[in-house]
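sanity check this record:
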Amino acid sequence: MNSYSQKYYSGSKFKRSISKKTLEVINPSNLRVLGSIAIQNKKEVNKVISNLKKGQSKWKKLSALERSKELHNVANRIDNSNLKELAKTMSQEVGKPITEAYGEIANVSSAIRYFAEMARNEAGNIAGTTQSESLQMETKEPMGISAHILPFNFPILIMIWTVAASLAAGNSVIIKPSEQASFTSLIFMKFFNQLSANVVSCLTGDATTGKAIIDHKDVNIVSFTGSAETAKKVYQSCAENFKPCHLEGGGSDYMIISDKTDIDFAATAAITSSFHLSGQICTSTEHILVHSKIYNKFKRALTKKLNALRVGDGLKKNELGPLSTEAAFNKAKNIINDAANKGALITCHKDSDHIESLKGYFICPAIIEKTKSNMLCEKDEMFAPFVTIEPYIKISEAVKKVNKSQFGLGFNMITKDLEEAHYVSRNIETGLVWINNPLIDNDALPFGGLKKSGIGRELGKMGLDAFRQTKMVIIDNEQKIHEWWYPYSEKQFRT
């Protein structure tokens, strides 16, 4: 039994939940039980938020420099720690390759340091005055308590993208990790236990726990990353309470492969973008449009690279692990069977029989051609190791097809033609555009999408401002009665 079973984190300590309801945590690679998490109830949610409110009143009074030092301390502890337990647990819970678990963790401290420094510098704005001898300005202030409802696929990095911004802004935070990554999230909490105030809590549970957190009157803003369907429910809950939120609701991203490219480079970029983490990334490429001149050559190169991928337990030397849950596995099977039954051409990984025989939630990676609009692979976010490919002739028509999507998170293009790259980046309707460099992000640049892919942005200045109130402040240093004040003079009535 995992030592974090049925625990939660509050007041810089790990505590055992009083809730009698639990969920088993399953290793998707071998279906073994790793432990169980508590489904935290309203009573525990209320208690934790009450403590966070007290902690935030102390935290917000610290200077930006003091908060910055404390956050740099958190980053230092991460950089100087043995991260083996954290990475191994992430691999076991999520199913991702251990090298990718370490890779995720390696990007965490830089994001913390970025927001630690940004919050020191971005404090407001002095406006040009509308009256002489009057100080007129905007100030930035913390919102209070922020709630962070997290996904399973990048349980630490996506957490830090918003948690670090919120802490730097002077808020306290309550984290509700994915059921599939709760142990990973709890282990990471130890890096916060030297903060001077009780400003970080982590509660485990299911959708009922998340809703109790979102609906709590003292939670001032909600950050959510997950499916579009759940994002809509979060949006509705926040709207009922006039509560701000920013949402990342997934995507079904496209990649355009120009005929003006090196085919091996294009195939390598596409295989990485489509199959990283077994396709379980919001910005995974799910649809590839290939110029008709190179379609057959590209397909052969892509198939060869697909067959070279190793599929198996993330703790071993494999590029692809299992899907995260039985529900995800069943959804993926339904998508591929639906495509096959409706006439699609499916090219499976050469080791399909072996992959299908594995005990965990493994599904055979596949390339899907000759798709139709009524197929699930075209209508839904697949979130599985599948990619559709089809030819295009004119770049303008390819862009139109991309823009018809109900999602608008990310987009990739592979081309050597600078004019083509500029045309596409100007006309594509997504929040993220990558040319020749898929999936890369930058702490200083905003991350987010359009349409059903979400509202708001993480990272960059926008990511910090999401967790700050903006206040207009007018201060006159002397008491002066202005001519437009009451009562009006006879002259004013006459004019």
